[in-house]
Specification:
Helices cover 40% and strands 12% of the residues. It is α/β, with parallel strands linked by helices. α3 packs across α4 and α5 packs across α6.
């Protein structure tokens, strides 16, 4: 009985680690354009951010059991640079469900120009509100996902014309519960390279943030967020590895 009690205590105290990394600066981040599902690569600065993220993760001396990313180039290449830094050649798992939010008719437009045209309050509503969607993107637009090769294998009914943060949350968390949560329950360490809004969705779920809090949450590029979870998936610790430029998430 003592042995069983001892083993149960070990299990309760065991921690799995989840590391969330927003991709490094992309070319359209630099140009202040709404990117969404358009497949844009990293800038030189974004590549440097990814390498620095790898160095911070390396200092934690964690064995990463699984690597996940979206199927978008900026997240894929961020993860490649992190894995190169870690000298870890595990095959990553890529999932379109971890993609950035689709910005509909705003896709490709300059944020500052659209603020001048529509007003800052309206653009902030589109960017940060929970369930407001921009107008749908015309299917003839070259930036529509049906016209981008990397999305050819996704069922057409799954490809959005526009999304709210709520829509993004639903697909991200459905995937998390199906493919990631059980691995964390099995005491595995996981790193996810994704995007501002897909990581915001994960944070809303993990930290039980209300709709007002999630609307104001900012996720910095290339700064790993380390989350420790106990055996019943309660967050016991959370911190940005580069403390000098953390986001506004409450860490503990």
């Amino acid at each position: 009985l003592y042995i069983l009690f001892y083993l149960s205590v070990i299990k309760i105290n065991y921690m799995s680690h989840l590391i969330l990394v927003r991709h490094g600066q992309s070319e359209w981040n630099q140009q202040k354009r709404f990117t969404g599902w358009v497949d844009i690569d990293l800038t030189d600065n974004g590549k440097l951010e990814a390498c620095k993220a790898g160095e911070y993760i390396k200092k934690e001396n964690l064995n990463i059991d699984y690597f996940f990313s979206s199927i978008q180039l900026r997240a894929i290449n961020t993860l490649k640079l992190i894995q190169d830094t870690l000298r870890d050649k595990k095959e990553p798992i890529r999932a379109w469900q971890l993609n950035e939010r689709h910005y509909g008719a705003l896709t490709g437009l300059n944020k500052d120009e659209m603020k001048a045209k529509l007003g800052e309050d309206k653009i902030n509503q589109f960017r940060r509100s929970w369930d407001l969607k921009p107008d749908p993107l015309n299917k003839n637009n070259p930036y529509h996902p049906i016209n981008i090769d990397i999305y050819k294998k996704i069922p057409l009914e799954k490809i959005p014309d526009t999304e709210s943060l709520k829509d993004t949350y639903e697909r991200v968390i459905e995937y998390y519960n199906l493919e990631i949560r059980n691995k964390l329950l099995d005491d595995k360490n996981i790193l996810i390279s994704a995007h501002g809004n897909s990581i915001r969705a994960l944070c809303k779920f993990l930290f039980q943030l209300d709709n007002n809090k999630i609307s104001s949450l900012e996720i910095p590029t290339g700064n790993p967020l380390l989350i420790k979870l106990n055996s019943i998936q309660e967050v016991t610790e959370c911190r940005y590895l580069d403390a000098s430029r953390g986001g506004d998430l409450l860490v503990f």
